[in-house]
């Protein structure tokens, strides 16, 4: 297959609208996802697709800049790709893990298309046809004029959770926290749990709490049917002090590579590893990590770092092949208004999404949608993911003490929120 080598890499940044601006512990998604779509072309004319974020900014230059590293490289040679992009010494100066992930997605897509098989067949074959998802509940800013879509109070959060369950069939629910003080947020969390008896729940303040606050939160939610408490405080040592019987701790922040995974196995601080195809550097590293977790009987789930359809496909192929997938996956996907893949947004059925079965990742670009949302990015530009448009000049401490005021129905006006 001498013609099956990389000859070009293209990158296009798009800005795809969300239902509303989503608030989180270090800032906000400003009403849209800015994602860079990656296309890797081989000499025989096949094109593989990848995707990555950039904290609200474009990653085009970084992606395209790697063409000189990969021109002439076979997409089959994925272990060589890892060292060509992520040599550990070079990565001390220029961490390319997430860039590698986008390129690995595209190479797996290419290999699947070349062989006429879906990516899950390249990874050992699927053990399930659908992957289950949790709802992803955010505190949200409302419409600047009407306030519609706001989620700030317990009642608004309950209404939002019930609506998502009615639309998509979710039976597990995740609250993204770290916006308001922990006592207020746990009041909200408990209200949702009371409104959805029989479902399961998880709370994620993105490491923003002190150890003392984390312990208090853990104690308050003990009566809830919790999947787990996710990243209440920062670091393996902090998590180790919070860990207690009867409540599993999960992370996608402090175990995101194999050295951290080994450290956690030797001196357990975290119970559940949330595998993210971007943060771990691709689908294959996540499969390897899942194998380690299976050996040590450590539960896993698939994590979302904010996705359009290409990355969602990587999450689905990953979830399809993991025998020890213990919990429903995360996804921001239902917060999106649209997508850039042929056929539009993938659909939920009873809280699950079907695993794509076409060659490669099983998704293709809708060129008209890509052009539309690339123009939106050119019009609006990027935004700072680690800033909150409703609190100019604000940034969090860690552990944080600069919480938003839950009594304040802020409606920020900024053209980048469009």
Automatic annotation (TrEMBL):
- Please state every residue range assigned to the domain named Mandelate racemase/muconate lactonizing enzyme C-terminal: 154-249
Q: What class of enzyme is it?
A: lyase
What is the reaction catalyzed? D-glucarate = 5-dehydro-4-deoxy-D-glucarate + H2O
Question: Pathway of this protein?
Answer: Carbohydrate acid metabolism; D-glucarate degradation; 2,5-dioxopentanoate from D-glucarate: step 1/2
GO terms assigned for molecular function = glucarate dehydratase activity
Pfam families documented for this protein? MR_MLE_C (PF13378), MR_MLE_N (PF02746)
Which Enzyme Commission numbers does its entry carry?
A: 4.2.1.40
Q: So where does this one cross the membrane? A: none
Q: Which Gene3D superfamilies match?
A: Enolase-like C-terminal domain, Enolase-like, N-terminal domain
- What this protein is called in its record is glucarate dehydratase
